[in-house]
Amino acid sequence: MLYTPHLTTRKIMPEMQEFPMLSLSSRITPEHLFYIRNHFPYPIIDMRTWGLQINGLVNRPLYLRYHDLLQMHQVSIPVTLECAGEKRALFVPKTRGEQWELGASSHAVWTGVRLMDILKAACILPNAMEVTFEGMDKGVRTDMQGIFTYMRSLPIKEALNPDLLIALYMNGKPLPFRHGYPARLIVPGWYGMASVKWLQRITIIDQPFKGPFQAVDYVYVNTAKPVETIRLNSTIAQPSDQQVLAKGEHLLLGTAISGDSPVLFVEVSFDNGMTWQPASWLDPHESYSWRRWCLKWTATNSGTYDISVRATDAAGNVQPEIADWNEKGYGYNAIQKIRVYVD
Amino acid sequence: MLYTPHLTTRKIMPEMQEFPMLSLSSRITPEHLFYIRNHFPYPIIDMRTWGLQINGLVNRPLYLRYHDLLQMHQVSIPVTLECAGEKRALFVPKTRGEQWELGASSHAVWTGVRLMDILKAACILPNAMEVTFEGMDKGVRTDMQGIFTYMRSLPIKEALNPDLLIALYMNGKPLPFRHGYPARLIVPGWYGMASVKWLQRITIIDQPFKGPFQAVDYVYVNTAKPVETIRLNSTIAQPSDQQVLAKGEHLLLGTAISGDSPVLFVEVSFDNGMTWQPASWLDPHESYSWRRWCLKWTATNSGTYDISVRATDAAGNVQPEIADWNEKGYGYNAIQKIRVYVD
């Protein structure tokens, strides 16, 4: 029990908990420290009756019991999930919503059935345009009347990406209830809102889905574009901002990720971006995983140090100096800066 | 396990954990959510040999085993502890050190032996000036060479205040190791640095104690004054800053405290301090306890609301508009302001 890092509780109902980035000792996040961003109270699930429906524009509607899913071909893929509101607290001016700091992101190995296999088994009709995913979690919203279930859609092309999973396991163990048991959609490379928990229904439709978690939330209000793939980003996990250090060698440690193009390298600056030095990778490249970087730094002189980190992707993109401010505070990915003091 | 608030982990070694203020459902903080601010790694304690020494300028040096302390007259006092760095993250510009937000403060009922009874039993000599308290926790500092134990002093007059305890119990249960077992000094009304954990020695001296946790840390650098009693302060526990609310009735809930003069009333403003309305007390007045306040607020119109809270004490003091900035970030007690959105 000593020296236990905890989730940072941002909200109790619905539950919102942040991964403590300072405890980034392994690439994989232990399940009990994996961030949680719910939209509604936890659903009540009766496994005697639970099954996953696949319906809409299909030739063969399916109803897959938990047992059926367990019997299907299983695939394991490491995928980092990241809330679209990650680092929202860093926006200036602040924006409405949970004030996520650095840890609205976590990494796990997900195991389950390829969504593609299920969609093929259902025989999608040619006029299919989108696929909707409905969770069992439901409740009220502040901005409209009625009871809503949490529901999202994907374009049919994205839904047929062979790396999308209906996950039944997380880090080799049955998916914890708090993370979507019995079945959770995993959409690699997309912000976490796409990875619908407590799945109960998949529907193939011939028009754009306009549910409130698609058309009202998870929209960059400044450009009216939907929030989709994870923007190029990097994070300093240690030291933390305003930390006091002794003279000597310190390890700077953090993560980098992009949902679009592989991150090629991470650089660190000690002079507010005048000059940059490359960090080293602690992890190999994997398509959908954050990759930890580190840099040994010897602090020989007392003083105040400003440290910045930036990632560059294979397409030549670099993180922006200033975040793309938007009213609902999504997709913060500006270069992170911290200040530390050497005594 | 569902909807579990956690401590917010600010640092792993030494351990620093913050109480989640959003879970202020009772006046008393459950032990597992009580904030932790350690200066060193946890000490190793062998209860077969542990005893509390009382020495220095006394006629009768004492050595009190745990069993001896348990046999002495026990007193229970509710005392709120608050880290001197509480709300440090709110200073502008930021200051070095742990970026505590709202919850570097917690409340418990402490039970143990009056320090006064022990000092009397030891027969203090007339030239006594200060009393030092030494914990068993020790380690290195960033700013000077050597190994230090955590050690603090009090003026003799303060040490003889009958409300100071050598606490053996917290909330009616044996003091948890993380909170100072087997014995912790409790100094009501003072910031938490005075309430030395894992006590091993009490020494009466005839000169001012100049240890680094007395003369280097816990000093307001701007005035060169020592950090002592808890400044008049109030906190909004719910709603949280940037929260989105539905139209209708909401409960504003928070705490108020002062280590100097009783808090008379708490007021809330919805117009940046132009007008103020009184909050109601949820708890009775107790000398050393935070007191929870609440205010029912009916949000009838959509919009953005700025909410401020301020406390006034019996001496007529009001919290300042702007915090008393000091280099090490102690004693933040400016009027807290949050912004919420009604949809």
TrEMBL record, chains A, B:
Keyword Oxidoreductase included in the entry's annotation: yes
Cofactor: Mo-molybdopterin
Pfam families, A to Z: Mo-co_dimer, Oxidored_molyb
Keywords: Metal-binding, Molybdenum, Oxidoreductase
InterPro entries per the UniProt record, alphabetical: Ig_E-set, MoCF_OxRdtse_dimer, Mopterin_OxRdtase_euk, OxRdtase_Mopterin-bd_dom, OxRdtase_Mopterin-bd_sf
SUPFAM superfamilies linked to this entry: E set domains, Oxidoreductase molybdopterin-binding domain
All residue ranges annotated as the Oxidoreductase molybdopterin-binding domain in the record: 39-212
Domain (Moybdenum cofactor oxidoreductase dimerisation) ranges: 228-341
Family matches, as PANTHER family: SULFITE OXIDASE, MITOCHONDRIAL, SULFITE REDUCTASE
The name this protein goes by in its record: Molybdopterin-dependent oxidoreductase
Lineage start: Bacteria, Bacillati, Bacillota, Bacilli, Bacillales
